[in-house]
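Q: Convert this sequence to structure tokens.
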Amino acid sequence: MPRTRYVTTGTIRRGKLKVSNATHWIDAIRSFGDGPVVITLSTVRATRSHEANRLYWAGYIGPLSEYTGYEPGWVHSYLKRKFLQAPSIVIADSHGEIVDETPVEPTTTRLTPQEFSDFLRHVEEFARELGVTVGPREYAS
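A:
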């Protein structure tokens, strides 16, 4: 069966594209069936580091999970819904009348480092109101 999707990274320098692992790129092109394709270029956005992710789960989610008694994944979902914006999915019937609307759970994985830092600041303020210590000091112990 022909391939239907291939994603790789690369770098543009002086108007020229250098694809990461060019051999795999060429093999991928050859693995597609004949016909039109969509090619998309997008700028790589910085994401949070593995250390920042560990800090979030151990230094923020952990103490709040312990305080509330809820499992860490639930606390994470709660904080995302409380502090991040997310669109709703709206379903309309064939006449254009809305029959259902449900908010989509926001994600932290696409936040830039600055956006993630802002998110953590909101979580810290919320935790402080509860009397819960979060952040690097808690994570270090």
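Residues 1-44 form one domain.
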